[in-house]
Amino acid sequence: MQSPKQWEDLPDGFQVRATRMEDIEEAVDLFNACSIDMIGCPDHEAEVLHKIWETPNFDLDQSSRVVLDANKKMVGVAEVWDVFDPPVHPLLFGRVHPDYEGLGIGSEMLRWSIDRSKEVMKRVPADARVSARAFVISTYEPSKKLLEDHGFRTLRKTWQMEIDLDEELPEPVWPDGISLRIFKHERDGEAVFRADLDAFRDHWGFIEEPFEHGYKRWLHDMIQDEEYDPNLWFIAVKGQEIAGAALCRRRSWEDKDTGWVRSLFVRRLYRRQGLALALLHHSFREFQKRGKKHVRLGVDSQNLTGATSLYEKAGMRIKRQYDHYDFEMRPGKELAKT
Fold first, then answer.
1. Do 114 and 78 meet the contact criterion of CB atoms below 8 Å apart?
2. What is the mean pLDDT of residues 61-75?
């Protein structure tokens, strides 16, 4: 258990300990109770959470805590994600069961998360700016107030966008010289990762990492995902070079009838030629063939490459907004793309 002083403002009888893999089922129940309260539906499954907690360089014992009430029921979970290299912006995640809000649990979890985040200082360049970050659903006021009351400032907004697949969809129009192929891990794995990296290098929040560090995490997140299907990874090539891709997941986390575009990218040389729209149309049509009712994706609302207008042109609309927050722990040189 944690020292009483660190969590001294918890209600009487409440305790804190490190999170364990055996907590998955109870954590899923807690997360889904919160999701139902925030978005109206559950969005966690045990198999997916197990994979998340196994993310390379995520130390569950050191970077996550559970809060238990006097009856040993799990009522809160806090996580600090410092898996990037360098970890200049650890991401904070926390959930408190809706029945236990207003007891100060969220504040105690957030204070611990900030303290834990400060430990990244020894792993980053001495002149680097370091800040903890978090994101919340824009309509969920308790989470926004919690962050703002503890000194977090609004940083950015991202959107989840959606299209319905109940009508006939346009056929893709491919730029001259572009051909499409299905992803094969042995042939394309490293090349697609490098192309994805190259395309997102000028996007907000990008951090340059050592190849092996980033590639290992990418394989875990993308290829080992339970809903990964290589037949939904569409690779656009010109000659032998990858020009862009749509890397899709069989379903969204919260709805089995909704497909998900995990990554849509076009490399700089091939932009402004209609390739991204063609990849979107192709993906939409494939999901429609599979009986999906919707397709969703996430996008930075201030994307500099025109992604938001592209998605609107493709018939997508904003489904949900997330507000991103920043808590500066040390000023310095910003290493992430701004």
1. no
2. 98
